């Protein structure tokens, strides 16, 4: 798990994050995604580590964020790269691109919902 547990920073209101959605937030010049899936709030880096697509434009599959660009799936709890979609010709990523593994995992962050109705992310 590549979770950081630093200082909590207020990033947005809980009501701004609808169920089964993700929003882009900025903290000190960096971009992050805050989302709500299956009733739980989570936070991660804004960009897919594979080719840097914006993950808030993706969707969910089970407990994973699916990148909108190439379909890589990352577990929202651990950030681990768990699934790679086959390319258009049916071959999987290792056959098509021997350096697919350079994607790495997605950095995830601890979040808390405050009594004030705001989401706090530990960065």
From TrEMBL:
State the protein's name. Answer: Putative rieske (2Fe-2S) domain protein
Determine if Disulfide bond is one of this entry's keywords.
no
Cofactors (names): [2Fe-2S] cluster
Q: Which GO terms describe its molecular function?
A: 2 iron, 2 sulfur cluster binding; metal ion binding
In terms of SUPFAM superfamilies, this protein maps to: ISP domain
Do you know which CDD domains this protein is assigned to? Answer: Rieske
Q: Which organism is it from?
A: Candidatus Nitrosocaldus cavascurensis
Keyword annotations of the record: 2Fe-2S, Iron, Iron-sulfur, Metal-binding
């Amino acid at each position: 798990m590549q979770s950081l547990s630093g200082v909590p920073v207020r990033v947005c209101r809980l009501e701004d994050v609808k169920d089964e959605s993700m929003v882009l937030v900025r903290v000190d010049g960096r971009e992050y995604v805050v989302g709500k899936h299956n009733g739980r709030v989570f936070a991660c880096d804004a960009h897919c580590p594979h080719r840097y697509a914006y993950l808030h434009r993706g969707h969910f599959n089970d407990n994973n964020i699916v990148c909108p660009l190439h379909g890589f799936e990352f577990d929202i709890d651990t950030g681990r790269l768990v699934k790679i979609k086959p390319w258009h010709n049916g071959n999987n990523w290792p056959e098509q691109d021997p350096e697919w593994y350079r994607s790495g995992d997605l950095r995830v962050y601890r979040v808390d919902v405050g009594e004030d109705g705001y989401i706090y992310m530990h960065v």
